[in-house]
Amino acid sequence: MLPRPGVLVLMLWAVPALAADVPPVIPRELLFGNPVRDDPTLSPDGEKLAWVAPDAKGVMQVWVRTLQGKDDTRAVTKEPERGVRYYEWAQDSRTLLYPQDSDGDENTHVYAADLSTGVVRDLTPFQGIRARLLEASPTAPREVLVTMNLRERTGSDIYRVSLDTGAITLDTQDPGDVMTWTADAKLSVRGALAQKPDGTTVLRVRDSVRTPWRTLLEVPLRENVFPQYMGFIGFSRDGARVYLKSPHGSNTSRVVEKVLRTGAEKVLAEDAGSDVMDVLFHPERKVVQAVAFNTDGHLRWKVLDASLREDFEALGRVADGDFSLVSRDRADRRWVVAFEQDAAPLRYYTYDRSTRRAELLFSNKPALDQAPLARMKPFQLKSRDGLTLTGYLTRPVDAPPGPLPTVLLVHGGPWTRDTWRFSPEVQWLANRGYAVLQVNFRASAGLGKAFLNAGNRQWGRAMNDDLEDAVAWAVKEGQADPARVAIMGSSYGGYAALAGAAFSPTVYRCAVDAFGISNLFTFLKSFPPQWQVIRGSYAQRVGDVDDPAEQERLRATSPVFAVDRVRVPMFVAQGANDPRVKQAESEQMVAALEKAGRDVTYVLYPDEGHGFYQPENNLDYHARVEAFLARHLGGRLEPIPKEGRVQGSSAVVRQSGGTAK
């Protein structure tokens, strides 16, 4: 019997003669298929370990085993088609909680898997609603708080759910402007992060569930960072103080402690070059123990709790890369720690605090441990108007010096950022022979409010210029072949790919767009119900479709109205159930390209939303993009299956051959 393809490739990697020549093609299955195991967490009592892994049908389920004694490994979820991507332990250590939607529509329900009975229940069984797990507490181990838009589709009320009876009780009502809620150690909801119509962020608190809400802090949009870098961390154990990620009085967000009675504030951690990237908050003591920043491409921890200093020093010696604590037991004796590298899959370790020893638990994709993976090299450049832009360049393993065909890979958001990490997409492109260029263009988040605000109303303008400047830098440095540069991205990155093809047609050879925005008018008018509260911030940062003074700019920066300027082949992919960037965004762009006689390939996945999460669809998408890039840039190719699709994929393909050259 012949070995499976992945085994055969691993055998080839072991042959020195081939390694000295050109590294072999890494199968897409190894990069984009399911992990073998991932996301391990300890039960609060420290007796069990859970993780996600595929079942016999390739569907990701949650698995559990007892740490001591017999091996009782078993799957505790039973999802038939769409795998579990995230889960949490309830505080009773016998229930696992996870969200699940239908074919990517993001109307998630919260499910509970009971380890003692094997029963899986929908805790939020209401049609058409969107529920999310908010918080659990050891003070009420058989209760959880969830948010639901049951009463009002644009709202986010909090409900208290009993794990014993399934009873659902309204706990806190959303006044209509709340984005996130925070509960204290007693599972009382006492913090709310809201947004005003003009984009101002408001942090509200209350002293108890029987006292009225009051404003703790107001931050206008231009003085703010993006929400993931601002907001509540948690309340102190006695409820008298609150810990915040706050940009108030600083260009970057910092961790502050605020006394609720007096308003006195103390800065606990800050960095002039980075917003707060991660916070270690003790689940029992309710104190901030360590804060992570990212100023040089790497995660740097500032330890505040002296009792952890030796632990962090010991972890720093365990392995190369950036580490983060992903799970801990209630006694705080055992941790699960993740190590991130650029040229290795994610590795998880168990760490014993009593001995300060770490043991490898597993790699999430062990078949890649010996693969020829490429290194990410950080760089800086000056934009044409003087901003400092940071990014990463990844060249193929053993590539000779000199310019290469290049893919400009644009991150989504746009209010996120690229970081030094293992990226399957980057490794895939580098392995196929491309230099991969990533840049944190203006509006990228995590780099402070000034850099974020530099992108306000600059979609298709200065943000597009930054991408062009990154390509020019790579060409000048002798890294990129100017005649063979592709632009590629998803979500905002997809918009950037469409905009690059339309507004910079001489810079790029081809463009790849996955669920990108093509028409700013239709995009800004089609927000899903749960996004209505942030319409004000989009009006400020992107544009106000109701303001006549903005019409010309919004039209000029919508790629759908500039297809006559497109001269390069286009690849467009879309999930039919995407609630954020709706199918109409891709449909109207493709129709306009076809009408203009342009070369466009359109792939629709009927059972996907904002992202291609079904493994078969993810593999199918990358197989098609790989063939597209090979055709136009000349890179290496792992052929698409002879059937013309990955087995099990739902892809619906439309090909229009045009006059684009």
TrEMBL record:
Keywords: Hydrolase, Signal. This is S9 family peptidase. It comes from the Bacteria. Residues 647-661 have a biased composition (Polar residues). Residues 1-19 form the signal peptide. Residues 640-661 are annotated as: Disordered. InterPro entries: 6-blade_b-propeller_TolB-like (IPR011042), AB_hydrolase_fold (IPR029058), Peptidase_S9_cat (IPR001375). PANTHER family: DIPEPTIDYL PEPTIDASE FAMILY MEMBER 6 (PTHR42776:SF27), SERINE PEPTIDASE S9 FAMILY MEMBER (PTHR42776). Residues 420-635 form the Peptidase S9 prolyl oligopeptidase catalytic domain. It comes from Corallococcus caeni. Pfam families: Peptidase_S9 (PF00326).
